């Protein structure tokens, strides 16, 4: 098969690495970078570190309003798809690159697969929620990271094309953790001791674009008597400058870090506080308690099993949870077994090549795979 993979933002580069590796064993992959993220530390750093093949196309759309950015990707990607005539387009997650990728492909009647399908926050003010809803509605194949996602898709009438494969972010972590431990010197560089600091990331529009919520986060972090490492997304850095935020000396605002450094910072943290979808899951993979600086999350299973707590941005609530939140001993493998990419490749080879794409029909291949995965007793603890 000739497969176009569309990526554009930081988490998509991390996710594409294991998937590319699995797909390229038997298929031709054409990698399209939309250019949504473009700073070295937000883009090329991940290609260099993770050995992701260089993109065949970079659409160089850059930043812009939602409409402009999505439209630019749509126009430029359509040209690529018309030229390349792929058998399948793969999009992942919930970014504007995901939305435009699904839209461009489906308008050209090219079968489309969505990785990380079925995630919902049920908050349509969140740009990502619109992107996911549309991508899932248009996709012909849905690869889910969690079981809950299957139920959400079923509730929307999307069934026959749905597979629970587990989370490709877990694949990425397992494939890179040992090398990260060998290569990253971030603990020494930042003079950190394991278990003696908290790691914070913030970049959601609901937090960065609301001066009140952002101010509350700054106030909460300043009040915590603990070293905090805060690699700031460029969007967050700009928003902090806009409100002239001032941090106490124990809050170490740094540039975004590479994936290896990030894994090492995560695994050695006493606590993680974040509004990132990827970081919430990575905290769970690594068994680190997580406070989510949002009012809702797509990753409800991490909250249900007791390892993630929704604290919003109210300083009192954040501070109350900061030292009192203790997850349970149980740590079930809610995101699969770290072989999601291989499963995706297998499904494309077996079910899809053999039976064709399940376009909206109520077939059962997805359920077969769920049964297989459920029967595995693989933990995801380190
Ligand atoms: C996007 C995704 C979000 C994802 C995040 C991952 C959408 C709607 N949102 O959010 O789901 O969690 O990526 O990090 O697609 N900027 C730079 N340099 C860069 C990239 C961005 O300076 O390389 C700044 C620009 O000022 C830009 C702002 O960050 O306007 C926001 O970037 P954008 O890609 O629009 O959204 P993210 O907040 O990164
Ligand atoms: N990440 C990173 N460096 C950083 C911050 C995050 O490598 O400075 C990684 C993080 O480990 C995770 C991914 O980026 O794998 C998450 O991306 P982000 O938080 O930007 O987006 P989201 O997951 O919320 O869509």
Query: How many H/I helices?
Result: 17
Please report the first level of CATH classification, the CATH class of the largest domain.
Answer: Alpha Beta
Low-confidence stretches: 359-382
Average residue-wise pLDDT: 92
Number of domains: 2
Q: How would you spell out the order of helices and strands?
A: EHEHEHEHEHEHEHHEHHEHEHEHEHEHHH
Measured by DSSP, the beta-strand proportion falls in: 5-15%
CATH hierarchy: architecture of the largest domain: 3-Layer(aba) Sandwich
Descriptive notes:
This protein is α/β, with parallel strands linked by helices and 382 residues long. Helix content is 47%, strand content 14%. It contains 17 helices and 13 strands. The model is unreliable at 359-382 (pLDDT under 50). The two termini are 35 Å apart. Helix 1 crosses helix 7 and helix 4 (96-107) runs parallel beside helix 5. The chain has two domains: 2-167 and 337-369, Rossmann fold (3-Layer(aba) Sandwich), CATH 3.40.50.2000; 185-324, Rossmann fold (3-Layer(aba) Sandwich), CATH 3.40.50.2000. The protein has a seven-stranded parallel beta sheet, with helices on both faces. The protein has a six-stranded parallel beta sheet with strand order 10-9-8-11-12-13, sandwiched between helices. It binds uridine-diphosphate-N-acetylglucosamine and uridine-5'-diphosphate (UDP). Uridine-diphosphate-N-acetylglucosamine binds next to helix 1, helix 5 and helix 11.
């Amino acid at each position: 098969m000739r497969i176009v993979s569309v990526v554009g933002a930081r988490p998509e580069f991390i996710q594409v690495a294991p998937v590319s590796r699995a797909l390229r064993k038997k298929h031709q992959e054409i990698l399209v970078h939309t250019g949504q993220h473009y700073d070295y530390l937000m883009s090329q750093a991940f290609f260099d570190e993770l050995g992701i093949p260089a993109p065949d196309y970079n659409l160089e759309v850059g930043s812009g309003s939602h409409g402009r950015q999505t439209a630019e990707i749509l126009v430029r990607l359509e040209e690529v798809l018309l030229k390349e005539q792929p058998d399948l387009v793969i999009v992942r997650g919930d970014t504007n690159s995901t939305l435009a990728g699904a839209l461009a492909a489906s308008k050209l009647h090219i079968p489309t697969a969505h990785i990380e399908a079925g995630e919902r926050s049920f908050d349509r003010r969140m740009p990502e929620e619109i992107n996911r809803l549309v991508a899932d509605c248009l996709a012909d194949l849905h690869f889910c990271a969690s079981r809950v996602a299957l139920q959400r898709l079923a509730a929307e009438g999307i069934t026959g094309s749905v597979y629970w494969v587990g989370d490709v972010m877990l694949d990425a972590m397992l494939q890179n953790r040992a090398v990260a431990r060998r290569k990253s010197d971030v603990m020494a560089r930042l003079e950190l001791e394991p278990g003696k600091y908290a790691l914070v990331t913030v970049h959601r529009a609901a937090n960065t674009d609301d001066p009140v919520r952002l101010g509350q986060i700054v106030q909460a972090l300043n009040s915590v008597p603990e070293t905090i490492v805060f690699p700031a997304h460029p969007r967050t850095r700009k928003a902090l400058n806009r409100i002239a935020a001032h941090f106490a000396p124990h809050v170490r605002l740094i540039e975004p870090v590479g994936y290896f450094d990030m894994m090492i910072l995560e695994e050695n943290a006493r606590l993680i506080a974040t509004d990132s979808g990827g970081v919430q899951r990575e905290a769970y993979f690594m068994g680190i308690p997580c406070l989510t600086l949002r009012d809702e999350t797509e990753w409800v299973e991490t909250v249900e099993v007791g390892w993630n707590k929704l604290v919003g941005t109210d300083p009192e609530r954040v501070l109350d949870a900061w030292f009192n939140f203790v997850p349970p001993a149980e740590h079930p493998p809610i995101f699969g077994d770290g072989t999601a990419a291989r499963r995706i490749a297998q499904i494309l080879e077996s079910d899809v090549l053999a039976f064709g794409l399940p376009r909206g029909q109520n077939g059962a291949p997805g359920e077969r795979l769920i049964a297989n995965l459920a029967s595995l007793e693989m933990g995801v603890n380190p």
